[in-house]
Design brief:
Helix content: 55-70%
Shape: globular
CATH topology: Serine Threonine Protein Phosphatase 5, Tetratricopeptide repeat
Distance between the termini: 24 Å
Radius of gyration: 12 Å
Order of helices and strands: HHHHH
CATH class: Mainly Alpha
Number of domains: 1
CATH architecture: Alpha Horseshoe
CATH superfamily: Ankyrin repeat-containing domain
């Protein structure tokens, strides 16, 4: 989490993609790094971006079996796309 916090503090691009179109959000979701995941989401990381294999952070977290990451991503996605309902 410290590295994510440091990068965001210095204005890193939150949705920067690797050559395989992976974002920090995807990596945190797969690894189950909930503090990093929450920090990225707080900085408005996009949950709808797809990797080179057409997977979102949600799909990657589910495939990795990270239930807590899946729950966090589902909640954020629901809140962002259903703005009429408070979260």
């Amino acid at each position: 989490m410290a590295s994510v916090e440091l990068l965001l503090k210095h204005s890193a691009v939150v949705d920067f993609e690797t050559p395989h179109a992976r974002t920090a959000l995807m990596s945190a979701a797969v690894a189950g790094q909930l503090e990093s995941l929450q920090m990225l989401l707080t900085h408005k990381a996009r949950v709808d971006l797809e990797s080179a294999s057409n997977d979102t952070a949600l799909i990657l977290a589910a495939e990795a079996g990270n239930v807590a990451s899946v729950a966090a991503l589902v909640k954020v996605r629901w809140c962002r796309f259903n703005r009429s309902n408070p979260c």
